[in-house]
Amino acid sequence: MAASNADRMIALSRQLAHVHNRLRDQLRRLRSTLGSPNPPEHDLRTHCLAFCSALTTHHGGENAGMFTEILRARPDLEPVVANLAQDHQMIASILGSIRNLAHEATGTTPERRELIRRELDGLGAILESHFRYEERAISATLDSGAVQNTGWAATVFQLRQ
Q: Which ranges constitute the DSSP H helices of the chain?
């Protein structure tokens, strides 16, 4: 028997929380790399850029597809979606700073690693608040089955590592 749209959306709602947990784990691993006494510069850049790319892709998929479909089904959620999109812009700005610091990681000094760590700490706090808000506000809508997956799930849930 084929799964109903409601069943698929409940699965996507759960997958949203799972992806957020994977992003949290990536951030923790990146922060632990910075905590090493002498992290290899290549590892630092690679982990930093991979995390930034995964988060950017995830938020891009939400902005370009998931949020559009949520608003189509639930126009009353426009203020929630606007808040989430605003968070994405703020997070993108922080990711830009982190990318720049990662690109400049050649000859990384303890002071430079501390600067990157502070940026990541701030990002972590913002992400935690953002993820929790999004899961509370969006999951119920996805669970309702009112939202169609028009292809947006592939981008939202695909984390490159």
A: 5-35, 41-61, 67-73, 78-103, 110-143, 152-157
Q: How far apart are CA 66 and CA 4, in angstroms?
A: 18
Residues 116 and 113: their CA atoms lie apart, in Å, by 5
Give tens-digit pLDDT for 133-161. 999 988 888 888 788 888 888 888 876 54
Q: Which residue has the tokens 């119920």?
A: 140
Give pTM, 2 decimals.
0.84
Rounded-to-integer distance, Cα 121 and Cα 68, Å: 31
Architecture of domain 5-152: Up-down Bundle (1.20)
- Which backbone phi and psi does 56 adopt, to 5 degrees? -65, -45
Give the start-to-end residue ranges of the domains of the chain: 5-152
Q: How far apart are CA 104 and CA 51, in angstroms?
A: 16
Tell me phi and psi for residue 37, to 5 degrees. Answer: -55, -40
111: number of Cβ within 10 Å: 8
Amino acid at residue number 34: L
